[in-house]
Design a protein that fits this description.
Oligomer: single chain
Radius of gyration: 37 Å
Helix content: 40-55%
CATH class of the largest domain: Alpha Beta
Order of helices and strands: HHEEHEHEEHEE
CATH superfamily of the largest domain: Histidine kinase-like ATPase, C-terminal domain
Strand order of the largest sheet: 3-4-5-7-6
CATH architecture of the largest domain: 2-Layer Sandwich
Number of strands: 7
Structural class: alpha+beta
CATH topology of the largest domain: Heat Shock Protein 90
Distance between the termini: 92 Å
Largest sheet: 5 strands, mixed
Length: 225
């Protein structure tokens, strides 16, 4: 049978069964349209996802510390202090990690500041992220010391220094006021002494009359982790 005979037979079959032929052609068209639509939607979704990833930076890697547990309560991600500035320095060293182009360490925490004090205060703070008990203790030490200076020291200047010191956190507050502070005379300093003692730390107060006050606290870091 020649191709002409085959074509003629096919045309005769279509004319004889017009409804079935029409439904068959409709099914073929619907199938082709479905395939085209599925492929188009898939490529569109893939491009959208790729654009979102590229917008974040395909070569950007964020490293966050894990969570910590304090008093039986587990904190959220990033509350641990397992990462320090020295880790970022090590990652930025080409001899340690040659494939890393740059490292940008960041620190996220809650801070509060009260404005409007007429007492000049100089801050010198150098410290990596701290264990929460040590951080709270340092906050209360500085807060209580500034309150006492404002109430009792008279017009003066205050210097606050916070820095790591041989496995401990050194918190030092010095003013040039009237001096004469006595830890046994008020509840504020006694409360600080108790808080520091609970962490295994040490509190020293040097406050000769007329020569200002220097409060020095050393809070061990290893015991608080």
């Amino acid at each position: 049978m020649s191709w002409a005979d085959t074509l003629r037979t096919g045309l005769d079959a279509i004319r004889s069964h017009r409804l079935r032929s029409g439904l068959t052609m409709l099914g073929i068209l619907i199938g082709i349209a479905a395939v085209i639509l599925t492929v188009g939607l898939g490529e569109g979704a893939q491009q959208q996802v790729s654009s979102a990833i590229n917008a974040l930076g395909t070569n950007l890697l964020v490293v966050s510390p894990g969570s910590s547990t304090t008093g039986g309560v587990r904190g959220g991600s990033g509350t641990s202090v397992s990462l320090t500035a020295s880790d970022a320095t090590a990652l930025g060293d080409k001899s340690v990690a040659p494939d890393i182009q740059a490292v940008a360490p960041s620190n996220s925490r809650s801070e509060s500041l009260t404005a409007g004090s007429e007492m000049p205060v100089t801050l010198d703070v150098t410290a990596d992220p701290l264990p929460e008990p040590v951080e709270l203790a340092a906050y209360f030490i500085v807060s209580e010391s500034l309150t006492n200076a404002a109430r009792y020291a008279g017009p003066c200047r205050v210097e606050v220094r916070i820095a790591p010191d041989d496995g401990a956190l050194l918190v030092e507050i010095a003013d040039d006021g009237c001096g004469g502070a006595d830890a046994a005379a008020g509840t504020g300093l006694r409360g600080l002494a108790d808080r520091i003692d609970a962490l295994g730390g040490r509190l020293e107060i040097d406050s000769p009359a007329g020569a200002g006050t220097r409060l020095t606290a050393r809070l061990p870091l290893a015991a608080a982790r």
